[in-house]
Amino acid sequence: MVVLSEHSEGSSPSSSTHGHTYDVFLSFRGIDTRHSFTDHLNKALMGANITTFLDDEEIESGEELKRELESAIKASRASVIVLSKNYASSTWCLDELVLILEQRMTSNHIVIPIFYHVEPTHIRKQQSSFGDAMAKHKQMMEEETNANKRSQWTEKMERWNEALLEISNLKGKDVKDSNLEIANMDTWLSCGEGSIPFDYLGILVRVDIYVADRGGMWGTISHLHSIYQLFEADAGMQIARKVQSGIMVVLLALLWFLGSCFILLIKPSFRLETEFIEEIVNDIYGRLRVHLRSDLPLLIGMDYSIKFVTSWLKDASTHMTDILTVCGMSGIGKTSLAKYVYMLHCHEFQTSSYIEDISRRCDEKFRLPDLQKQLYDDISKTSSIKVHDISIYTSKIENVVSRKKVFLVLDDINNLDQLDALLGRKGFHPGSKIIITTKDSWLTESCALFKTNVKPKHVKHMLQGLYETASQNLLCFHAFICQDPKTGYEKVVEDLVKYCEGHPLALEVLGKSLYDRDVGYWEECMKGLRKESGSHINNVLRVSFDSLPSKNDKELFKHIACFFVGMDRDVSETILKACDINTRLGITNLIDKCLLHIGRKNKLMMHRLLQEMGRFIVCQESPNKPWKRSRLWCHEDSFKVLKQKKGKGNLLGLALDLRMLEKEKMCVPFELKTDALSKMDNLMLLQLNYVQMNGSYENFPEELRWLCMHGFLLKSIPLDLPMDNLVALDMSYSNIESFGICYSNSQRLESRQKLFGSGLKVKRSLLGSMKILNFSFCDQLHTLSGFDELPVLERLIVTNCIGLVEVCESIEACVELVLIDLSYCSKLEKLPKANGMLKKVKTLLLDGCNLGESKIEILDVDSPEMLKANTIHINMKTMSSDILEAIPSNLKCIVISFPSSLVKLSLANNNLSTESFPMDFNSLSMLRELYIDGNPIVSLPSCVKRLPRLEILSIKDCPMLNSVEHPPHTLRELILHYDDKYYSEQLLGKVVFDPQMSPLLLRLGWDTLAPSSFEFEGMVKIHPLAGVDVNILHSLGWTDLECVYYRWMGTNFWLRGLEEYQIQMYYEFGIFSTIYGGKDMPNWIRCRGKGSSVSFTIPSSLNKFKGLNFCYLQTIYFLLDYESSDMPMILISNVTKNQTWMYQHYIDNVSVYEECLIFLSHWMFGLNEMEAGDHVTITISVTSQQHQLTEECGVSLVYDDKKTDEEEKEEEEDLLGYYKSWNHIIGGDLTGFQLTTGEYVLDNRRFLLHDNELYPYHQFVGDYASLREKVCFKALSPRNSVRHLLGRAHEDVTE
Fold first, then answer.
1. Which CATH class is domain 296-403+411-459?
2. What are phi and psi of 138, to 5 degrees?
3. What is the band of 552 on the pLDDT scale with cuts at 50, 70, 90?
4. Highest mean pLDDT among 363-377, 481-495, 859-873
5. What CATH architecture does domain 22-175 belong to?
6. Which residues make beta-bridge pairs with 427?
């Protein structure tokens, strides 16, 4: 039988407390120590800045522990238990003890027992006062006549006994009693001079003389003198020597009373209580890291990083060493983040160490052994003898870290020697956590620790800077002591925030420097920053530049900072290689040093402050004479140098864009003379955008490698422009009308017409070094030819040339081509005939060429006749793959063969229908990326399904797409969503995968997924309830639902407004569900309870447990007719097995057009999740403020029917076989849905959101919980492939 019990509204099965109100909870017996030892200890703790909880009230024996005491214990980081003589006589104290030890087991609660004048053995064996107290409690239990209360007493006695045994075995502090033995002075004296009883000598430690004088001070002193005469005897001399050596103590108390003098010889109380208290305080102070509190850094805008690192720190799922490397440029917040996390959580580890500012400290001689000593002393908790041999210290560190779990932070590592010296190579104890902050992300995995057989688990966390809002808050905090700008400062704050690009150090430094300054001062500061970087910020950033290992890397950094930020990496590398720069090693080193990163679309990206630092270094070559620098990037400086013709041979690069100059400085258009470049003999990089040049172009430097002339006014390239060494020519946005002379094969002459006209006599291969040619956005360009003068051309980029009609067949001579981009050349009519020479083309981009509507002619070498308009035949062996990318998908009746070298093909926005799509992809054995976005296809073309190595498939913004069935099983990424401008009424109906599919990264939008009659295999299946096989419903335990089949419901699904449809059945995560309006739950839901939460215990049964049905009924109170109610979250916890599932339905909101809503679900739990005897709780949680009230919940358990016919059992199994074959279901693979705290988040948004955001689940699992792994979507379980095939066949028949 299932037993239901109600839970309070809003309760959750799991909770987490991450903050602490108190440092120490003091547990003590008031009558023993409240006004003595405990009071002194409490004052000492408070004096050491340790927050304590000390209850001021006494409680009578037998009373229940107050709730505030329970809360105080749970809100404390540690407990000090003063176990005194009468401690066990208080039931309150014993209850405190039990709760404290429970906290010790369930969290990192520190417990320090103090055995105050009691023996641990007496507690352990319940002897002496502890035995008496427990006997009295037992007597009270036996005298209790009420059976329930007697049972409670019995349970408490068991817990108390266990707690006393446990606390007696813990290591604690012993405060022992003083044992007084009194001897009459006359007795001593009668023994004769020098004959003090020898048995007292062993107990004498120190001399303290206390005088009680009733007859007068002088008499006291005389007696003291007579006593000291005793020490002149032999035995007395022995005592005196021992007193002087500090080994023995004599406590002499002289009492002058009624003429008799006594000497009190006291056996020592080992140590004074003040010393014990000091030791206890120091111990707690160190274990709680109280000394670190005042230095907790201010972190604004780093919440995500704090949560990420904290979640990593708390994740105990791995049984190996975990290393986290926090990377980033200088000043980005690495040290602050690591220090913040360490200070918050180091107390949770028994052994930890924080070594700060390692690189700076190691710059000084002999400092690495000092750091090793600090680390060794911290983790061994001993003070070692300093040695100067690094290898000896490394060995000592290796030995201690292999024996205990440790938490280390190594801040600002900058070379391998530091890592190897501090971490060694032998490995750490399992469960150890190590945080490394560095500007060089390559270092960690290159150290000796990663060259062992068992490598640590390594995670990198890259800090990129703050978002704009957080940047403003941080700047304003330092400038205004608040988080918002003052009135009138909004614009200057905005400008400064943009300048800093989220760099915390820059924001802090500038904010502090601008504190209490007026707006005018801010504006002048901004002008100064544009001319010269702040010295402090610049010095911090320059550390990384100075650490670069070679001159090559430093020159590369300066080149990129001045000219190549935002440019394609491959293009930049090609140009810089021609400038004798080793880019392969150099760019990797810059990335590792966090001086450079690769952004979207493979662009070189650099933080603005780093870029300015690099340019500042170049500027310092000649601060006041720019023509003497190696590079000119400032357009104003470049203009002046060219105007004054001061450029010399020292210049390597120059950039000038007249549009970037301030308009007021250019009153009239200004023409520059070409001879201004004549003396720049070593100039290799030249950018002259929108510059009008007069004179002969033969004055251009012959060493040019890169020439960029956007907005060039001439209609052809000047004949006298020296281009023998030119590697890249960029004439985008120019007036160029044609390039080269197009000729046919039959027109080849021994003396060819030269590229720039027949009248100019130049040598063959005039452009023999040219590798990159860019004519993008040249509206007047109509012909491309003369490719036989470009034998090493690698990249042809001709995008958005709306007048381009023809590409000459001479392109066959460009045998080194790897990329052809003809995107959005919408009037293109003739593509070259391939002749089998283009075998290296990897990328072909043909987006937006309107191939379906144009009259493009593509001649195949094997086909003498030209194809008809709207029909293309391309021989795969003869045509380059780059050209193919430029072919639009708009063609009708297309038969295309592509070259086998093609890796990336884009046919986006070509108006290609499913029927007109190219049908011959068989030869594309190397194709890995295919983009067919924006085409009016209805289903996935068959030719795409057969691609054997396809890894990325993009089908976004296809407004007519209805199904995607069986994409290639090699697919790794599927892009399937709509941009707002491509919004369509058509929604996907079905997405089905191959059983052998690879794990997949899904990039989907909810706007592509339908709320009804929809299936995304492995994610969600929605089907009208009326159309579901009745046998399937029966196997779920669902009966008598016919009355709701044809009712209607609606949902506000994204931007589509309210959509109405018949009642549906949903399936996701192994959960079936349906939603409908009604006032009564199904009558077979017999076990019911009021409210929003139920609990029950699964009973024993002879039949096999198959799952459970859960149902709830809600009353809806709508304010408006069109409002819908949000679907609440369902939390199911198996308390026995400590497993929790948090489920958010696929449908966000629903309207059932009735006052009451019924949600019915079936959960396919197996024996691994639930079995007889397990205690289960189910809670409904409404996460938003809605007018809905959960009236009732109900549960029914589903078991196998008692069938004897095996065929009937197999038939029933087949009914659910397809559903059980899904991979991401309860009992299947939910690794991407499990939190570091153990719970499972069953929410389909996890497939679509590729981050660790847990809203709104954080309210149930705490702020620092995070998802353990990223979701790798795999629709079907490899274990159930046969079950899938049978179940899929059944589904197809029923549908």
1. alpha beta
2. -65, -40
3. very high
4. 481-495
5. 3-Layer(aba) Sandwich (3.40)
6. none
